[in-house]
Write a structure and sequence with these properties.
Helix content is about 55%, strand content about 5%. The protein is mostly helical. The strands form 2 sheets. A 5-stranded mixed β-sheet has the order 1-5-4-3-2. Strands 6-7 form a two-stranded parallel sheet. A hairpin with a 2-residue loop joins strand 2 and strand 3. The termini are far apart. The N terminus and C terminus are likely disordered.
Length: about 550
């Protein structure tokens, strides 16, 4: 992630509501009507945010008090009635009050807009002149960290200074020298467009023409915003939390009351693992701002922190950084951080182009492990995936000074460890592996959404344009009514990648609209069963592993006799 800008620069560009609504550019390109209601929408979201935090805080209070009571009564023989009087009420009050105090006094950072009155050019290295004509060739010359231009809807913007304080992280710099119109709309709410004029330095005159599929995709996106399909139904996610909590309570009850070790370890472990999987889906929704729109200027995503860090055990800041890049350049060889598996797995033949860039140790491990990837993908995903997430999350949080994530990860370890103490000592490790293997199914669900699809370089995906690129790199999973809950929205991965901010409960309605576009423009729409997707992915891994085989065991190819 790029370094933060010095305070002087932040003072220059962090000003709230400095750009009037009338200054927004290219009005017809995006959802104008949504901008008119953005202030009211933001107030509603802040109100919903408080209600939601009060709910989850009550859940924390109840669960924490129950676990501490159970642990204390087991270890120290504390009387339950006395414990209730001493602990439950104070814990509940504190747990509900703390997040409300944070919301009240921990104001979000001001919106990252611009004060045009002080210095019209303070935010850009290049003089602001919207009438200036800029060629595609000139745009392509500005791709360095200190000299970055991007194009949005026919306008050119200098982000050289802004990239260092971009609330979404360093992924913005990946689009330097490119047309990022659809990527911008996919990852931002309409109100952000009010800030664009402060960075506009000219008009793009000879950009490659947009494809018909891109034009239709943009029309569909505008239609969906107008229909209100980017506004979440809060009650839907409350019920999802209740589902996860209910499954967790089944697991805790089995651990505490099971007469057989098999009931305590297996039934308890499976239930806890399923609860973790379900809460991960809500964390995914919150991380994408599919529950609450982001506050002006960014700030901590508390709903994502609660579900992702505290309940799931992953750094929400690390996830947001990596997942944004994954959405921006899905399956790009050696660049998509969530599918960059070498030296353990080779997921595309195009990764071999830069095989020599690996260290000697990585090359050795690749030659050893990739030929086995057909057999190791699922075991590694379900057994090692959870432990790996915990480790890299803590490393990331400490390295990048994300102390709220450090606290959340420690709290996760605390509640999970306290829960495990319900079991006899000899049953805890087997329970841990059963729970984590069950939760590890999530990692398989994630990988089969993209493995065995196409992989494109930066130059290739730019030519394809956003809609076609996402269609070529993503797969849906066919579900029935009875197993729809088990996939948590990942079964609509295509629609999710096209509209990342869309709440999960609208994805199924969007699916036929996307299918219609694909049929019209002769683009693939991959959708198969869970078993079919696993089979496709394993077959693909089996076929491409031989590229490593040839490096590991060089041999002379004998001519075929007639």
């Amino acid at each position: 992630m790029p370094p933060r800008a010095p305070d002087a620069l932040r003072d220059d560009i962090i000003k709230t509501n400095a750009i009037p609504l009338s200054d927004k550019v290219n009005d017809g390109a995006v959802e104008r009507d949504c901008l008119n209601n953005s202030s009211e929408m933001q107030q509603n979201h802040m109100k919903n945010h408080r209600v939601f935090l009060a709910f989850v805080s009550a859940v924390i209070a109840t669960a924490a008090a129950a676990w501490v009571e159970m642990y204390s009564s087991q270890m120290y023989g504390v009387d339950h009635a006395s414990f209730n009087r001493l602990i439950w009420i104070p814990v509940a009050v504190i747990a509900v009050a703390v997040p409300l105090v944070l919301i009240k006094f921990g104001k979000p950072k001001p919106a990252i807009a611009v004060s045009l009155q002080k210095d019209p050019n303070s935010t850009t290295k290049t003089k602001r002149d919207p009438t200036r004509k800029i060629s595609w060739k000139e745009l392509k010359e500005h791709t360095t960290e200190d000299d970055s231009w991007i194009a949005l809807h026919g306008k050119v913007y200098d982000i050289s200074k802004f990239a260092k304080v971009h609330p979404g992280g360093g992924v913005i710099s990946e689009y330097a020298g490119r047309n990022a119109s659809d990527e911008f709309e996919a990852f931002h709410t309409p109100r952000v467009r009010r800030r664009l004029p402060a960075f506009c330095i000219g008009t793009l005159v000879d950009a490659p023409a947009e494809l018909p599929s891109t034009r239709d995709y943009r029309q569909l996106r505008t239609k969906l915003w107008e229909k209100g399909w980017f506004e979440a139904d809060l009650s839907y996610f409350v019920w999802k939390d209740i589902l996860a909590l209910s499954i967790l309570m089944v697991g805790v009850y089995s651990m505490a009351s099971g007469e057989s070790a098999w009931v305590r370890m297996v039934l308890g472990g499976v239930a806890v693992g399923l609860a973790i999987q379900q809460i991960a889906f809500v964390a995914h929704d919150a991380g994408h701002r599919g529950i609450f729109h982001p506050q002006p200027g960014g700030g901590i995503n508390w709903a994502g922190w609660f579900h992702g860090t505290l309940c799931f055990g992953v750094s929400i800041e690390m996830w947001s950084d990596e997942h944004s890049r994954h959405h921006a350049y899905t399956m790009r060889p050696r660049e998509d951080p969530q599918f960059n598996y070498l030296p353990v797995f080779l997921v595309s033949k195009k990764e071999m182009k830069n095989f020599g860039d690996l260290s000697k140790l990585e090359q050795f491990l690749a030659k050893l492990l990739v030929p086995l990837q057909y057999y190791t993908l699922i075991p590694i995903s379900v057994i090692i995936g959870r432990f790996n997430l915990h480790i890299i999350s803590m490393v990331y949080a400490l390295k990048n000074k994300k102390f709220h994530d450090v606290v959340g990860l420690l709290m996760y370890c605390a509640w999970f460890g306290t829960m495990m103490n319900i079991l006899p000592a000899q049953e805890r490790i087997p329970f841990l592996f059963i729970a984590y293997i069950t939760a590890g199914i999530l990692h398989v669900q994630l990988t089969i959404s993209h493995l065995a699809t196409d992989a494109f370089t930066a130059e290739e995906d730019e030519k394809l344009q956003f809609f076609a690129f996402q269609m070529r790199t993503t797969r849906n999973i066919d579900c029935s009514w009875w197993d729809d809950w088990f996939h948590g929205g990942l079964q609509y991965q295509i629609e999710h990648h096209l509209f990342p901010q869309m709440p999960r409960h609208y994805l199924a309605k969007t699916k036929p609209l996307v299918e219609e576009l694909c049929k019209k423009h002769d683009l693939p729409y991959r959708s198969t069963s869970l078993s079919g997707a696993v089979s496709e992915c394993l077959s693909d891994l089996h076929s491409i592993r031989h590229f490593i085989d040839d490096l590991a065991y060089p041999h002379e190819i004998m001519p075929v006799s007639e």
